Amino acid sequence: MTPPRKRQVRLVVSLTLAVLLASGLIYTSFSAADPALPPSQLMRQGKAGADIQLTGTVVKHSVVDLSSGAVEFELADRSGGGPAVEVDYSGSVPPTFEAGRELIVTGELKGHTFVAQPSSMVTKCPSKYSAAPRST
Amino acid sequence: MAFAGRVALVLALVVSMYGITAALYGARKGRRDWVDSGRRSVYCLAAILTVAMAILEIAFIRNDFSYNTVANTSSTTTPLLYRAAAMWSSQEGSLLLWVWLLSIWASVATFMTRNRLRDIVPYATSVLLGFGAFFTTLLVFFDSPFAQTHPAPVQGAGLDPLLRNPSMLIHPPMLYSGYTFFTIPFAFAVGALIVRRVDADWIRVTRRFALASWLFLGIGIVLGARWSYYELGWGGYWGWDPVENAALMPWLISTAFLHSVMIQEKRGMLRIWNASLVLGASTLAIVGTFLVRSGVLNSIHAFGASTLQIPFVALISAMTGGSIYLVVSRREVLRSEHTLDSLFSREAAFLLNNVVLVGLCFVVFWGTFFPLISKAVTGTSAAVGPPWFDRYTVPLALILVLLSGIGPAIAWRRATLANTRRNFLLPVGAAAVMAVAAYTVVPIGSSIGVVLLFCAATFVFASVGQEFWRGWRARRATSSDSPPLALLSMVRRNRRRYGGYIVHIGIAVLFVGVAASATFQHEQTLSLRVGQSTRVGAYTMKYMRASGSVVADPNHTGATMTLGAVLRVTRGGHYVGTLRPSAGYYPAAIVPGLVVASLISGDAVDQIGLQSSWRRDLWAAIKPLGRTLPANGTQLPEERLVNLADGTISPTLSATAQLQTAYVELGLIVAHYIKYPPTASFTLIASPLVMWIWIGGLIVFLGGLTAIWPAPSALRSRLRARYLARVAQELGRA
Question: What is the pTM of this model?
């Protein structure tokens, strides 16, 4: 093979590899991803049985510790308003978890209750860069 | 004073605009004086912005709550050190910090190049001032740090207690230094492409800035991880959150760049690639700055809706479009002088390292922006979680660690069988021994990744150690230095090389910590009463007694009250240590009549109990009051606590007397808590080798510092050259 030809072959082989890897990546991301919804949308278009990332704010006075170590609470939209969803959650609870905190849980809608996967809760930091002044 | 601040920002904008025009005009007409004038506007910008920074900083220190940003992020109860750092917890404050750092580093860069690269410098100057103009525009027209409210509130909201952590004092300036440093290689790359002077000169001038950017970003990332580990109360240090990823992406690309420039300097290859990497990394740095405050992605950092989306998207589009145009239109002059000789050479190893790093960056980019991508493709926003990231990043990280052992040992141009055997016999042998040792200790099936990583790390230690050993022996053979001195002078004579090797060791150490702590961590979340105990891995943790304090503020973060627990940790019946996790309660604005409640109704924040050693970390966080509601269901636990003591302060007392009484009441609350401790919920973690993550980070930092430090001989020779030039000038004049 002449050198330019060899270079072309190398280029084609490496580009093909890159494309193959990238399409693998893209395919798995679509199949592994969970739709992310706020509670109001979940209630509106709620498909039972599919894994969903639920994002919202814990409703005040809604947190109940069960003796089993599990927690029940209601989650409402970040912006406030809209219907709240009841969430059943077990497993590790981040210590920053409390009423009024924003969080993300992954799980599925069963009837009217959102059953979260154990230890799927991520709490958000309080607004570090809030545009509006915090009310205290 | 605020008026002076506003004037300073407008002046800064005017100076930037003038500087851009002057530098470009000078370059067009070949007028050196105009170019110099453009350069001086960079210094001028730095001076003006320093004044603006000082005004705002003084307002923070003096508790001048007429400034909205001070009232929103600081308070008289916030300790002085945290007040001084509160500026960058707001959007407008952090933008000011950004552009101030930019102006400082740009001044350093333009000063260093005042007599070099004459054709490139004017364009680089205008690009740097362009960034300055963009950010000052945001500060003048969109989000002013000098906006005021009259009359001033008597008290501010206070710095978010979660940010009251030593790491948070320096994390944002480090990260922003990293982001802003990278604008300098970007500006010079753009200049070099515009004038089609694409040899390695601009790289030599800006390499140290790229290295500084890489180093500062790295420090910023590690400090962020440390903050998360100490403060967020989930016991983790990395969660593939968009904001973490935003800092990681430019860091990965600049790592790739630092390696591939060596090939351009040595062999004149990879010019298109290097130019693209520089342009890409700095665009990603702006994307990072943007992501942190845009709210376009769901992140654990809950950001308010920002007003700055449109200007940032415009800037990022302009940078991307401009970069692509420049590289494509200059592709002819960017052609390589040489080609790769062999696939078994250091060049090829570097190339592979670049491909892996860029691939890693692509994975992170894709995962981070996936919610937007899937919204565009399927109509619903969807997110990928840490398992998806891990699936790709773990194997890629393994390859990277392995390459960081191969790179230093393999020969340039073409490795022969003989020198390969000479260089790799020991590292491969060491890795094999490690594999056998690991196999006997850990069950291999479930943790194949961690065993592979341990082997790769051993390989790196042996390979880099061998390089040090050989260099040291050669140095001793040619000099009469004592052994330690020979090592020191060897490193000093070749800072870049040995600094780089030290970084490789640090990275391997860091990954050992990450792999072990991620794989073999034991975690328990549960409720305990005093006297109860639980097992966490091999350890037994017993809740001995409740603890608490008022005003004492053991962590110096401005907490008015802390409630906590004392846990006794044993292993196999032997005492191991004591953990004292607590929760800090912070004051909110004082409401007359509800003084006690006001003193503790801010956010409660974890102060973790940690026992750290080189072998394992024992980590505990507590929610002192549990989360359980009382049967009648209307009060939060904190409210119940306050009710124990409230209602006894007479509103006729003076404000000071009310406050004093309130503190006494708080003391009663704490005493009650200690005497009748309720069931508290705990998160308990036993995690091996976590400390090595921080030690690895420190080694990387030391290595980076070694590489970045100007060589004394070079400095001396430069000074001598300048002196000789001046003497010659004087002689010529005489």
Answer: 0.87
